[in-house]
Write a structure and sequence with these properties.
Layout lengths: L2 H7 L13 H12 L11 E5 L2 H7 L7 H5 L2 E8 L4 H24 L3 E5 L4 H8 L5 E10 L17 H4 L6
Antiparallel strand pairs: 1-2, 2-4, 3-4
Helix pairs in contact: 1-5, 2-5
C-alpha cells in the first residue's frame, strides 16, 4: 500500500475478525512506533504487546469504553514516565501521540485495523502488565483485521471540511 493510501484507509476499528496477526507484522508496527520522532530524541515510550486472549479481556477493563480491546488480535500499551513537571509530561504525551500514529499507519499499510483507548485504572493496568511504579499507561492501541470490511481509502471521511480547517497565513 502507498503511504497516502495507508493514511486515507486508516479508521478506528472496533470490531475485529477472529484472526491472529503474524509476529513479523506486529514487529513492524512496533518498529514504526520505535522510529517515531520525539523531542530531543528523548524516546520516552515503552510498548507492552499483549496477544493472550485472557489478558486482552482483562486489559479491556481498564477503561469503561475499552470493550473492543477484548476482541482485538493484539493490543499495545504505550507506557510513559510519570513525570511530575507539566512541561515534561506534555512533551512525553506529544511524543507518544506521534508513536501511536506511526503504529496506526504502519498497521493500515498491512491491512490491520486499529483503535485506541484511554486507561483509567492505572493500578489494574500496572498489575496486569507489570510496568514500574514510576511509569503509567498513557493509552492502548488495539489491533486486528476489521470484521466488517477491509481497509480501503475512505472517499468521504467524516471530517470537518478542508476549507474550514485550513487557514493560510492568518486565521
Amino acid at each position: 500500500m502507498e503511504t497516502w493510501d495507508a493514511i486515507t484507509s486508516r479508521r478506528n476499528v472496533r470490531r475485529f475478525a477472529d484472526r491472529s496477526i503474524p509476529a513479523d507484522h506486529l514487529d513492524r508496527v512496533l518498529e514504526a512506533g520505535r522510529r517515531a520522532p520525539s523531542s530531543q530524541n528523548n524516546q520516552p515510550w515503552d510498548f507492552v504487546l499483549v496477544t493472550e486472549r485472557w489478558q486482552l479481556r482483562e486489559l479491556a477493563r481498564v477503561w469503561r469504553g475499552g470493550g473492543h480491546v477484548a476482541e482485538s488480535a493484539a493490543t499495545i500499551a504505550v507506557i510513559l514516565p510519570d513525570a511530575q513537571e507539566a512541561r515534561v509530561r506534555e512533551r512525553d504525551r506529544f511524543d507518544a501521540g506521534q508513536a501511536v500514529m506511526a503504529m496506526m499507519i504502519a498497521a493500515a499499510d498491512l491491512g490491520i485495523g486499529s483503535g485506541h483507548s484511554a486507561v483509567a485504572d492505572q493500578a489494574k493496568a500496572r498489575a496486569l502488565l507489570g510496568f514500574p511504579d514510576d511509569r503509567y499507561a498513557a493509552c492502548l492501541v488495539d489491533l486486528g483485521y476489521p470484521a466488517d470490511r477491509p481497509l480501503a481509502p475512505l472517499r468521504r471521511p467524516n471530517r470537518r471540511p478542508f476549507d474550514e480547517v485550513v487557514h493560510r497565513g492568518r486565521w
